[in-house]
Amino acid sequence: MHRSRASATRFPVSRRPRVVRASVGAALVDLTLLLVLGPVLGLVGTAAAVGPVLQVPYAGITVVVGLALLLSVACVVGAYRTRVGWLGWTLVAVGVLLALLASLWPLLATADAAVDSARDVWPWISRLLRDVT
Fold first, then answer.
1. Is residue 48 a contact partner of residue 56, using CB atoms and an 8 Å limit?
2. Among candidate residues 25, 19, 43, the one with its CA nearest the CA of residue 97
3. Gap between the Cα atoms of 110 and 88, Å rounded
4. Given a cut of 80, is residue 90 above it in pLDDT?
5. Which region holds residue 51: left if phi is over 0, alpha if psi is between -120 and 50, else beta?
6. Any residues with CB less than 8 A from the CB of 123 and at least 6 apart, and which?
7. Which of 104, 108, 129, 132 has the smallest C-beta neighbourhood within 10 Å, fewest atoms?
8. What pLDDT digit, counting tens, does each position of 9-58 carry?
9. 103 vs 67, 100, 114, 124, CA distance in Å?
10. Alpha-carbon gap, residue 37 to 74, rounded angstroms
11. Which of 25, 21, 24 is nearest to 83 (CA)?
């Protein structure tokens, strides 16, 4: 029986697209973390330097970012493990979106904390104006 050229190679033909999907997914997740999460955490750290004026929810940020990044890595691994092309690329897209959401969550949580502290400032200002007048 005649062997085809594809079966005579060292790696099966169906494995290469899986590696490509996983590599693209891992690279996009890494770039998202580097280019989005890094600056966002720098901004949140700067906001936290204000001290007692702004209460940054560190625990919530850590839990959400950690879980989203674990799910993102699981999606990239799932993209490697599956043999179905469209499912693998869908998992790569979901993994990148999860990494993007995980990167933006600290910004949203800090903004919510800033709005809460601003709500606490207005009654103090109105009380101060009432006492002065």
1. yes
2. 25
3. 34
4. yes
5. left
6. none
7. 132
8. 554 445 578 899 999 999 999 999 999 999 999 988 888 887 777 788 88
9. 12, 5, 18, 34
10. 19
11. 21
Nearest to 79 by CA among 25, 11, 28, 32: 25
pLDDT of residue 69: 94
> DSSP for the chain?
-PPPHHHHSSS-TTHHHHHHHHHHHHHHHHHHIIIIIHHHHHHHHHHHTT-TTS---HHHHHHHHHHHHHHHHHHHHHHHH---HHHHHHHHHHHHHHHHHHHHHHHHHHHHHHHHHHHHHHHHHHHHHHHH-
Inter-helix orientation angle 85-132/15-32, to 10°: 10
Residue environment code for 63-88, b if the CB has 16+ CB neighbours within 10 A, otherwise e: ebbeebbebbbebbebbbebeeeeeb
Instruction: Report the Cα 112 to chain-centroid distance in Å.
Output: 18
Is-contact 95 73, C-beta < 8 A?
Answer: yes
